[in-house]
Amino acid sequence: MNELIDIILHTDDALLALVSDNIVKAYMVLFIIIMLETGVILFPFLPGDGLLFSAGVITATTELNLYILLPLLILSAILGNAINYRTGVLFGGSLHKSRNYFIRTSLVKHLPKAEAFYSKYGGRAIILGRFFPVIRTYLPFVAGLVRMEKALFMKNTIIGAIIWVSLFLCMGNLLGEIPWVKNNYGLIFLFLILITLIPLLLALLRRTVFKR
Fold this sequence. Notes:
It is a single chain. The chain is built from ten helices and no strands. 81% of the residues lie in helices and 0% in strands. It has helices at residues 2-9, 11-21, 23-39, 48-59, 66-96, 101-121, 125-128, 135-145, 150-175, 179-209. By secondary structure, it is an all-alpha fold. Residues 46-173 form the VTT domain. Pfam families: VTT_dom. Belongs to the DedA family. It is found in: Cell membrane.
């Protein structure tokens, strides 16, 4: 649990320390974080994009192996989506109407954005949503809630997971050998978070300013 918290708060330094201390545990922690972010509606704040990029950078300079990490985290992303979809199928209605404070502040606050995204893009939303923080956590739940065809959901989940994980991990690995990137990837991590939040910030701006 301490490793999870450290990686959330200090991703680059904590991940380096974990890899140096115990490589097997590093693989396990990365697997769990990606699975939680995509599989549990209470964890939309976990740093998916930045974590994948940071892990890719670290594979270029440490014993963390890209060829082990790539299929491992693709599997994690697929498994997370499948769990979230099943949660939507089984408990979607009751969770949507729940009066529990933690459920309402996490689910009710963000679910309309995911529902709107799903309505706009349909089945493709499962692929496209991988690249939008918060939305990617709630889309599989929405897909389960509306009983999206399971075969289509799993096909798009697999495609989206392969593209998302491969893009950020490989980009980090390719850039990780560059000295400036190696010395400043904490700054790059922050930049990635800001870039991926831009669509959500623009949507919020349109809703609060232009609808007055």
